[in-house]
Automatic annotation (TrEMBL), chains A, B:
Gene Ontology MF term list: metal ion binding; prenyltransferase activity
Gene Ontology terms describing biological process: isoprenoid biosynthetic process
Keyword Manganese: no
Ranges annotated as biased composition (Low complexity): 18-33
UniProt KW keywords: Magnesium, Metal-binding, Transferase
Classification via InterPro entries: Isoprenoid_synthase_dom_sf, Polyprenyl_synt, Polyprenyl_synt_CS
Chain residue ranges for the region called Disordered: 15-34
Species of provenance: Streptomyces aurantiacus
Name used for this protein in its record: Polyprenyl synthetase
Domain of life: Bacteria
Family indicated by similarity: Belongs to the FPP/GGPP synthase family.
Residue ranges the record marks as coiled coil: none
């Protein structure tokens, strides 16, 4: 169960429900250009990366040498030996959060260009949490490369993360835009929520799986993944000069879309193609992670759920991966997660339509929301 | 070599030079109340704690439960089991940084009360770095209690530190004072410098002692300890509406005073009374730490320096502590550190007198600078 990082998946439709017939089934309203497809989202993401990267890069380049080196590696701009790396989205991540900031600003009638610093700040916060989470979770691979701590050690990865958090706040503090202080306060509160979410996640991993409730794991996923997507959308709204109600609606939109994403991410973590996810097949199950489908399966009261609990009681043994996957599926974990993803998407669109009733104006946000739950490249 | 934390020392005059006759020997100009003594500093620190604690506590209380618990423990407001602890300065630290913010604001003609949030923000940043540094340095004791990571684990201590950094930035983002954005940008830059300093420190500990130059260890001490004291003074000046030159002079004052403090701290770490420092005698030497007197001794080109290098080449063996202490002393490490402390204090006072020529107006800052280098309780 990753920290909301977007893996490489090509047009693997894991969520037929979100393409259903009506808005309450989670489908996306049709705008001028027809239903948003992966192509449109790819264009939006590429445009966001083009706008935000120079700001992001300038911030990282301002770091003292020791911190700069780690940050440049983490962002995929340098190899571990300090030589320049060819920029590509796979190494740098998908820029979904900056794209949400810019799209939200545009949807609420603001100018995308004025929100570029806020977008870079959100991306810096995201990457600060990735650096720290990888240390805590002992994850050795991120974006198909060794994680920063695996290359530079724990201390340096933590310090580089600390520096990126500071850079995020500095970008906003130096931004003359009238919304920058409100945005900074909101981003700081979001960081606190992200920390609480990561705490809940690591604490849960140490607990007996049978003791964990669905409510707990949902709250954790909202704090860990939903909060920053919500904050990204809220910052865009703030920069567009939106009123409180619209800012909160955009936050709720991003949170629900983030939860929808997390459900899909957990499904892919179990049933996705390892050649596309870049992770070994069933890694989360072998590590006995309490992902959303797993907790749902454990709480199902079914014989398959009981079998899963039995399997999870002991560390992974060679050969029981197939049985584990099957148990989650038979206990309804996969169906539930997919239905939840569709439900969260429906709620997300509901929130969005309150702030931005015109589907054409909401187009960019819709494409991005669709993208994160369809998981096109 | 601690991260600028003030240990409990009672009127142990380790630095006769700073009490010399003239300003160029580092003595303190005489104000209306005669030369500042520990008593005056104690009053200033106590008053700062009284002003800032409610703001600090409100910020910490706003954290979600999991993060709040760790922060309350770290600040000495709760025991590890979550029961309230009697507040006392020994557990909460000496509030030297908030006191510098308030004193600097006052010295530059501002109102102390308006700078309380900035003072709390600086204290939050200081405590965020303590939480993280203790994890990296594997320090098990802080303020006479087990460190947060020793009680709650590494991940939670890192997350609580992350949360405190975020709280610091939120306090400034929510502060309507016209200087708050400039202060936030400056504090964020300071965090980056603190991280680079901590990186240099941990990297140095892994290197062969003979390869480390005095310049390197001085730069590290300035980044790790001087930067935040300088930032505290600069923030006070900003909140008083001071011009750029005065803000920079106050920053330089704090930096030099911070370096003076670090020299004294390192001297105490070797020759201080363990009953007063709260650390085992010679702990830094036994851990083969490259403190300022040690690096100076190693670089001295004396027979004692060579003997010290020999001792430092291997891990601590029972019985060689006495020889190690003597080697540092005979190689001139102690004398050099004390002379450097005096020199730094003289420079600090020089910077201060440019921005605040009237010793009476500078009184609070002078008392605090004197305090950190005399190390009264």
């Amino acid at each position: 169960m990753g920290m909301g990082e977007f893996m490489t998946e090509t047009r693997q439709n894991l969520l037929p429900a979100v393409e259903g017939p009506g808005p309450h089934h989670g489908s996306v309203p049709v705008g001028r250009h027809g239903p948003p497809d992966g192509q449109e989202a790819a264009v939006i993401l590429e445009r966001a990366r083009t706008s935000v990267d120079p700001e992001l890069r300038r911030a990282v380049e301002s770091l003292p040498g020791s911190m700069r080196r780690i940050a440049l590696y983490h962002f995929g701009w340098q190899h571990a030996d300090g030589t320049p790396a060819a920029a590509n989205a796979e190494k740098a991540g998908k820029a979904i959060r900056p794209a949400l900031v810019l799209a939200a600003a545009g949807a609420l009638g603001g100018h995308r260009a004025t929100a570029v610093r806020a977008a870079a700040a959100v991306e810096l916060v995201h990457n600060f949490t990735l650096l720290h989470d990888d240390v805590m979770d002992r994850d050795t691979t991120r974006r198909h490369r060794p994680t920063a701590w695996a290359v530079f050690g724990d201390a340096d990865a933590v310090l580089a993360g600390d520096s990126l958090q500071a850079l995020a706040h500095r970008l906003l503090a130096e931004d003359p835009h009238p919304a920058s202080s409100a945005a900074a306060a909101r981003l700081a509160s979001c960081v606190v929520e992200l920390c609480a979410g990561q705490h809940a996640d690591t604490a849960m991993e140490r607990r007996c799986p049978d003791d964990i409730t669905l409510d707990e794991v949902l709250a954790m996923a909202e704090a860990k993944t939903g909060a920053l997507l919500g904050c990204a959308c809220a910052l865009g709204a703030l920069y567009a000069g939106a009123d409180d109600a619209d800012v909160e609606a955009l936050d709720a939109f991003g949170r629900e879309a983030g939860l929808a994403f997390q459900f899909i991410d957990d499904v892919i973590g179990i049933w996705g193609d390892p050649r596309r996810t870049g992770k070994p097949a069933g890694a989360d199950l072998m590590a006995r992670k309490k992902s959303l489908p797993v907790v749902a399966a454990l709480a199902s009261g079914t014989p398959a759920g009981a079998e899963l609990a039995e399997l999870y009681r002991v560390p992974y043994r060679d050969g029981d991966l197939g049985r584990t996957i099957l148990a989650v599926e038979r206990a309804g974990g996969r169906d539930w997660a997919q239905a939840q993803a569709a439900e969260r998407m429906a709620r997300a669109l509901d929130h969005l339509s309150r702030a931005v009733p015109d589907p054409e104006e909401a187009g960019g946000l819709l494409s991005l929301a669709e993208f994160v739950t369809r998981r096109n490249t």
